[in-house]
Amino acid sequence: MTPPEAPVSDAGTMPPAVSACLDVSQPLVMRKRSDFLAAARAHRCGTSGMMVQARRRDDGSDLVRVGFTCSKKVGNAVARNRAKRRLREVARAVLPTSALPGWDYVLIGRADATAARPFERLKGDLDYALRKLHGQVQK
Protein backbone atom coordinates (compact mmCIF):
# COMPACT_ATOMS: atom_id res chain seq x y z
CA MET A 1 0.00 0.00 0.00
CA THR A 2 1.47 3.37 -0.98
CA PRO A 3 1.11 6.50 1.16
CA PRO A 4 -1.24 9.20 -0.12
CA GLU A 5 0.44 12.00 -2.03
CA ALA A 6 0.56 15.50 -0.59
CA PRO A 7 -1.45 18.14 -2.43
CA VAL A 8 0.47 20.09 -5.04
CA SER A 9 -0.20 23.77 -5.69
CA ASP A 10 -0.71 25.31 -9.12
CA ALA A 11 2.98 26.20 -9.34
CA GLY A 12 3.88 22.53 -9.00
CA THR A 13 5.68 22.89 -5.67
CA MET A 14 4.90 21.26 -2.38
CA PRO A 15 3.35 23.50 0.32
CA PRO A 16 5.53 24.02 3.39
CA ALA A 17 4.96 21.50 6.16
CA VAL A 18 5.04 24.16 8.84
CA SER A 19 4.62 27.88 8.38
CA ALA A 20 6.78 29.20 11.23
CA CYS A 21 7.63 32.62 9.84
CA LEU A 22 6.01 35.76 11.19
CA ASP A 23 4.07 37.85 8.72
CA VAL A 24 4.50 41.59 8.36
CA SER A 25 1.76 42.49 10.85
CA GLN A 26 3.46 40.42 13.57
CA PRO A 27 6.35 41.73 15.65
CA LEU A 28 9.93 40.55 15.17
CA VAL A 29 11.43 38.33 17.86
CA MET A 30 14.46 39.64 19.75
CA ARG A 31 17.30 37.18 20.23
CA LYS A 32 20.37 39.22 21.31
CA ARG A 33 21.21 39.50 24.99
CA SER A 34 22.05 43.18 24.57
CA ASP A 35 18.47 43.88 23.42
CA PHE A 36 17.07 42.16 26.52
CA LEU A 37 19.45 44.09 28.78
CA ALA A 38 18.47 47.40 27.17
CA ALA A 39 14.79 46.60 27.78
CA ALA A 40 15.57 45.67 31.39
CA ARG A 41 16.92 49.18 31.99
CA ALA A 42 13.71 50.76 30.67
CA HIS A 43 10.09 50.89 31.87
CA ARG A 44 8.38 47.86 33.37
CA CYS A 45 4.95 46.84 34.52
CA GLY A 46 4.09 43.76 36.56
CA THR A 47 0.76 42.00 36.29
CA SER A 48 -0.59 38.82 37.82
CA GLY A 49 0.38 36.71 34.82
CA MET A 50 3.65 38.27 33.63
CA MET A 51 6.16 41.10 33.82
CA VAL A 52 6.38 43.38 30.78
CA GLN A 53 9.40 45.55 30.02
CA ALA A 54 9.22 48.14 27.25
CA ARG A 55 11.52 50.70 25.68
CA ARG A 56 11.41 53.08 22.75
CA ARG A 57 14.29 52.44 20.35
CA ASP A 58 16.37 55.35 19.05
CA ASP A 59 17.21 53.85 15.66
CA GLY A 60 14.26 55.47 13.87
CA SER A 61 12.79 52.13 12.81
CA ASP A 62 9.04 51.53 13.06
CA LEU A 63 9.45 47.81 13.70
CA VAL A 64 7.96 46.30 16.83
CA ARG A 65 10.21 43.71 18.46
CA VAL A 66 9.34 41.32 21.26
CA GLY A 67 11.32 38.91 23.43
CA PHE A 68 10.25 36.14 25.78
CA THR A 69 12.00 34.79 28.84
CA CYS A 70 11.35 32.70 31.92
CA SER A 71 13.77 32.12 34.80
CA LYS A 72 14.36 28.78 36.46
CA LYS A 73 11.97 29.91 39.20
CA VAL A 74 9.16 29.08 36.77
CA GLY A 75 10.14 25.41 36.88
CA ASN A 76 11.95 22.84 34.81
CA ALA A 77 12.51 23.18 31.06
CA VAL A 78 9.07 21.79 30.26
CA ALA A 79 7.33 24.35 32.50
CA ARG A 80 9.46 27.23 31.16
CA ASN A 81 8.76 26.28 27.54
CA ARG A 82 5.02 25.99 28.22
CA ALA A 83 5.00 29.45 29.82
CA LYS A 84 6.94 30.93 26.88
CA ARG A 85 4.56 29.31 24.37
CA ARG A 86 1.63 30.92 26.16
CA LEU A 87 3.42 34.29 26.19
CA ARG A 88 4.09 34.00 22.44
CA GLU A 89 0.41 33.33 21.75
CA VAL A 90 -0.69 36.24 23.95
CA ALA A 91 1.78 38.53 22.15
CA ARG A 92 0.52 37.29 18.79
CA ALA A 93 -3.03 38.18 19.82
CA VAL A 94 -2.45 41.55 21.53
CA LEU A 95 0.63 43.27 20.10
CA PRO A 96 -0.62 43.86 16.53
CA THR A 97 -3.35 46.14 17.89
CA SER A 98 -1.79 47.54 21.08
CA ALA A 99 1.94 47.90 20.44
CA LEU A 100 3.47 51.18 19.34
CA PRO A 101 5.83 51.33 16.33
CA GLY A 102 9.52 51.49 17.20
CA TRP A 103 9.21 49.85 20.62
CA ASP A 104 10.83 46.73 22.10
CA TYR A 105 8.85 44.56 24.52
CA VAL A 106 10.08 41.75 26.76
CA LEU A 107 7.52 39.42 28.31
CA ILE A 108 8.74 37.59 31.40
CA GLY A 109 6.87 34.56 32.71
CA ARG A 110 5.96 34.27 36.39
CA ALA A 111 6.27 31.10 38.46
CA ASP A 112 2.98 29.16 38.59
CA ALA A 113 0.97 32.12 37.25
CA THR A 114 1.78 32.25 33.53
CA ALA A 115 1.05 28.59 32.84
CA ALA A 116 -2.03 28.36 35.06
CA ARG A 117 -3.76 31.69 34.33
CA PRO A 118 -6.72 31.57 31.91
CA PHE A 119 -5.74 32.72 28.43
CA GLU A 120 -8.25 35.60 28.30
CA ARG A 121 -6.87 36.96 31.55
CA LEU A 122 -3.31 36.73 30.20
CA LYS A 123 -4.43 38.77 27.19
CA GLY A 124 -6.02 41.29 29.52
CA ASP A 125 -2.83 41.44 31.59
CA LEU A 126 -0.72 42.25 28.53
CA ASP A 127 -3.21 44.82 27.24
CA TYR A 128 -3.32 46.53 30.66
CA ALA A 129 0.49 46.52 30.95
CA LEU A 130 0.88 48.08 27.48
CA ARG A 131 -1.66 50.79 28.25
CA LYS A 132 0.08 51.54 31.55
CA LEU A 133 3.56 51.59 29.95
CA HIS A 134 2.36 53.95 27.24
CA GLY A 135 0.63 56.22 29.75
CA GLN A 136 -2.93 55.50 28.67
CA VAL A 137 -4.31 54.11 31.95
CA GLN A 138 -6.77 56.34 33.76
CA LYS A 139 -6.29 56.37 37.54
TrEMBL record:
Homology family: Belongs to the RnpA family.
GO molecular function: ribonuclease P activity
Function description: RNaseP catalyzes the removal of the 5'-leader sequence from pre-tRNA to produce the mature 5'-terminus. It can also cleave other RNA substrates such as 4.5S RNA. The protein component plays an auxiliary but essential role in vivo by binding to the 5'-leader sequence and broadening the substrate specificity of the ribozyme.
InterPro entries noted in UniProt: Ribosomal_Su5_D2-typ_SF, Ribsml_uS5_D2-typ_fold_subgr, RNase_P, RNase_P_CS
Name this protein carries in UniProt: Ribonuclease P protein component
A Pfam family it matches: Ribonuclease_P
Summary of subunit composition and partner proteins: Consists of a catalytic RNA component (M1 or rnpB) and a protein subunit.
Keyword Transmembrane attached: no
Keyword terms of this UniProt record: Endonuclease, Hydrolase, Nuclease, RNA-binding, tRNA processing
Annotated signal peptide: none
Reactions accelerated catalytically: Endonucleolytic cleavage of RNA, removing 5'-extranucleotides from tRNA precursor
Organism: Roseovarius pelagicus
EC number in record: 3.1.26.5
